[in-house]
Design a protein that fits this description.
The structure is a single chain. By secondary structure, the protein is mainly alpha-helical. Helices cover about 65% and strands about 0% of the residues. It contains three helices and no strands. Bound molecules: zinc ion.
């Protein structure tokens, strides 16, 4: 994989992450602003429901990002480490090596 191909794949992965974060904010934080107008029982039920939705969306995000990384080869061919965390992508772009094992991953 070339450095430009890797950059494009990391950008696509980051876009997926931003979409899920926007969905999480919309589904959880915006409705929480209206919880204060409810009585305590309804507020607790509302918060629990929002937390369950948030956990479901977070799980979907992790599965989707992992699937995207596996499908596009964003894993080290030597040690199988993911090459997509933000800090790891900077190391990979700068050095061309895996941040986990140090082996070359980019051409
Ligand atoms: Zn590695």
């Amino acid at each position: 994989m070339t450095k430009q191909e890797y950059r494009d794949l990391v950008k696509a992965n980051t876009r997926i992450l931003y979409v899920y974060v926007a969905v999480l904010i919309a589904l959880n934080f915006v409705p929480l602003m209206f919880v204060s107008s409810l009585d305590i029982g309804d507020a607790i039920r509302c918060i629990v429901a929002l937390l369950l939705v948030g956990l479901t969306v977070t799980a979907a995000m992790l599965i989707h990002i992992t699937y995207h990384a596996n499908r596009n080869g964003l894993r080290c061919p030597h040690c199988n480490a993911y090459l997509i965390p933000v800090g790891a992508s900077y190391i990979v772009i700068a050095s061309g090596n895996c941040p986990q094992c140090g082996e070359q991953v980019l051409e």
